[in-house]
Structure formats: structure tokens, C-alpha cells
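Progress against Task 2.4 (sequence-to-structure conversion) is shown through the following example record, which the project officer requested during the mid-term review.
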Amino acid sequence: MTAIKTPRLLLMMFLQYFMQGAWNMTMGLVLSTYGMANIIGTSYALLGLATMLSPLLIGMVADRFFASQKIMGMLHLVNAALLFFVPYFITSQNTGMTLLMIFLVGLLFYPTTALANSISFSHINGVKNFPFIRVFGTFGFMAMGFIIGQMGYSGDVTTWYIASGVGIIIGLYCFTLPNTPPKAKSVPFSLRDLLCLDALALFKDRNFTLLMVSILFLMIPKTAYSAYIPVFLKALGFENAATMMQIGIASEVIFMFLLSWFLLRAGFKFILLAGAVCWVVRSLLFANVALNGSMILIVAGLLLQGFCWDFFFTAADIYVDRKAKPEIKAQAQSLRFMVSNGFGLLFASTICGTLFNRTVGGQGAELLPQWFSFWGFAAAVAGVVSLLFFLLFRDDKADVVEVVPAVQESA
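C-alpha cells generated for the chain above:
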């Protein structure tokens, strides 16, 4: 049965990140191109705020009331309509409406990422098979990057129209996914459920809390990369930033296939720590590129994407699934996503936006030396996180034991 479901989950993950790549990958560059570079940080902060408000509530609804794939489909279809109108406000430089629309897009989109993870974990073995499922999301992100890069859309609002079209496709496709019914539907609803207290109770586990705090602060170098690397690459002379970024995406694909092997043999602490340390190394490489423009160093920094993303953030998804009880797994994934793309993104984008405006403040080769402080700060934050994680996190080999998932109903 799992073999039958897997191709459907692969396509789901591909389309999920194919759509995200269209509007999110070069959002900072698009805003900069249309004279709104000063709101890049605010835009990502609003995405963080949106993620704080919606995923955990949507996760609770999926755990208790409606099938996850149906909720995911409806969210995508409504979001597709919103995405279609964003280019109008960007081209007219209507800052207020642009920020509002970006906020609404985040409010609807980010719960679908947590739901995609939850649906996958409900039908597969997480440690053994999730990296294989998740890598198709990376393929989708990569494919979109090549499309918008090669067509010259890296800094163009056309990317939002593409995202809208893909949103309709994945919205309809979600209704064909394996049925993932609410696992706690028969349990009486209470105020505790509305407040998602069972998922929040995971913070009683010291390792879980330490991981969430580490994610929160590692969102600073992560946001520095995702929001500003297209602007940095353009300053270095790369006009097709989206195409250049595919070096990192290719690395992510490779290491996604290796993640299960490493997790089953080395445990979570080693893998998560390796991922955190790589954020230090990557940020230091970019800081040096700002001073000498070395092509070798920029490629090396981009290639570290596999370690930085797979070995920390994807491994964290699997860790959270291992810690959560079956009846709160959707909430748990939403909680993890809130910490990173909610509180973390709001916190990190505010810091990165302020730092960018004060140290760089624009685009152009003449501003390259100012990028040194920008990337240096990101490296320092990742360094502190890595040290604390090394000293305080305790590995539990039981968390990587292979477990076959149990699903109440199948389609």
C-alpha cells in the first residue's frame, strides 16, 4: 500500500515547493527591482507573523475535524486567487497593499507546508523514507528556479502569476491525495484542544526545547541567505540570481538522499550539529566573498546548502515527528513550522532587515564591502547556536528506530 501512495506523495511535495519557489525564492530581488528594497525585511517579517497565527490552528483542525488533504487543497485554491493580484500592487509601488497581500499569502500558504509533512509522515516511515519524499520538494524548487532564471524573470513580477497558476494545479491535486483523516476525531473537543496545549506540552522535553530555540536563532543566517542572497549575487554581477542559486539546490538534493543513512547511524545530535556548524562556515565564506569577489568561495557557500538545510531543518522535521503522539502530529509539525517560519522568521527578518538597511542599504558592486558585516553577524549567531547545541543537547538513539506508520483510513 505504501508503494502505491509514495508516487502521489512525491508529486505533492514537488508541486508544493514548485509553487513556493515561484513567489518566495526571489521575492527580495523583485521588491528591490521595483524600488522597494527598504521593505524586504518587513515583508519577510510579515510572513513570519502570518506563520505565527495560522499553522498551529490549522494543524489542530486537521488533527480533529477534517482530512488534511482537503484542508490543504482549499488553502491552495484561495491562495492562488490572492497571488494573482500581488503583481499589480508591486508594479504600482503601493507599499501598504503589497505588504498586506504578502501577509495574506503567508497566512494561507505556510500551513500547507506543515500539512504536506504531516500527510507524508502519516503514510510512510519518517526516518527511512521522508528524506526521499522531501527531496522531490527540492526538485520542484530547483525546477522553478531554472525556469524563472533562464526566462529572465528573477526580478520580475511574472513569478507571482506563475505561482498563482501552480496554486490552482496543486489545490485541485490535493483532493486526490491518500486520505489522511483526523486522528483525534472521536475525542471530545475542549479548550485545551483550541489552545493546542498538547502540542505545546512538547516543550517539557529539554531536547525539544533546545532544538526549537536553536531553530529560532538559526533563522537569522537562514533568512539572511533566503531573503538577501539574490541581491548579493546581483551585486557580484550575476544577473540570473535564481539560476545561480540552483547550485545550492542541487547540493540539497544530494544530501537529502544521504540523510536517512546518516541519521540511522549517527543519531540526531551529530546530524543537527553538523547542519548548524555549516551555517557558520557558509556565512563566513560569503563575508570573504564580499571583500575579494572570489568565485570559488561563492560556489562553495552555495554548495553548503545540502548540509545547512537537510542536516538541520529537514532532520528537525523528522525529530519532531518522532517526539509527537499520533493524535497531535499535525499540530507538532505546525508548531515546528511556527517556530521557524513564524516567530523565527519575524524575529530574523526584523534583525536582518535592520542590519541590511544600516550596513548595505541597496544594491550595486560599489556596496560589496558593506556586505562583510552583514554576513559576519550571521556567522556569529550560528556559532553561538552551534556551541550551545553541542554542550546541551542529548541524543536518544530510540528516536531513530524505524517505525511503520499506522493510518486509520487509506485511499
